[in-house]
Amino acid sequence: MSKRQIFDQVSDMETQIGELYEQLGDLKGKLSHLLEEKHRLEMENHHLRSRLEQADDDFKENEVVNETSNIPGEGYDNLARLYEEGFHICNVHFGTPRREEDCLFCLEFLNKTK
Ligand SMILES: [Zn+2]
């Protein structure tokens, strides 16, 4: 192998190393973009999860409010009035006249509903 050939080979290797170094820089850039994107997605995911939990809590609170505002609600008032007017509201004799007697089933039902 002549000195000239050796010199050419070394020169080729220099070029290749330069290209590899460039590619390495490229890859580093892409990797840091990927890590930034991953971080951004994690933050977004965390944010969305807490929003979802908040929405779920609000929904449950709403349900409780609706339930409590319905009892004693209009339905209870109507049944209590019906009982006062002398009719059964229990599921045993519902809608039939009470004949001036208190009905234990009706009273129990009213207490339960209240
Ligand atoms: Zn009754």
UniProtKB/TrEMBL annotation:
Biological role: Involved in control of chromosome replication initiation. Inhibits the cooperative binding of DnaA to the oriC region, thus negatively regulating initiation of chromosome replication. Inhibits the ability of DnaA-ATP to form a helix on DNA; does not disassemble preformed DnaA-DNA helices. Decreases the residence time of DnaA on the chromosome at its binding sites (oriC, replication forks and promoter-binding sites). Tethers DnaA to the replication machinery via the DNA polymerase beta sliding clamp subunit (dnaN).
The source's domain of life comes to Bacteria
Would the keyword Iron turn up in this protein's UniProt record?
no
Cell location: Cytoplasm, Nucleoid
The principal location of this protein is cytoplasm
**Names of the cofactor(s):** Zn(2+)
Q: What is this protein called?
A: Replication initiation control protein YabA
The question of whether Zinc is a record keyword is answered with yes
* Annotated binding of Zn(2+), by residue: 88, 90, 103, 106
* Gene Ontology MF terms in the entry: zinc ion binding
Subunit structure, briefly? Homotetramer. Interacts with both DnaA and DnaN, acting as a bridge between these two proteins.
Tell me the Gene Ontology biological-process terms attached to this UniProt entry: DNA replication; negative regulation of DNA replication
- UniProt keyword list: Coiled coil, Cytoplasm, DNA replication, DNA replication inhibitor, Metal-binding, Zinc
Similarity-based family:
Belongs to the YabA family.
- Which residue spans traverse the membrane? none
HAMAP family per the UniProt record, alphabetical? YabA
**Which segments does the entry list as coiled coil?**
24-58
One Pfam family assigned to this protein is: YabA
User: Which note does the record give on the cofactor?
Assistant: Binds 1 zinc ion per subunit.
Q: Which NCBIfam families match?
A: PRK13169.1-5 (NF009644)
Q: Name one GO cellular component term.
A: bacterial nucleoid
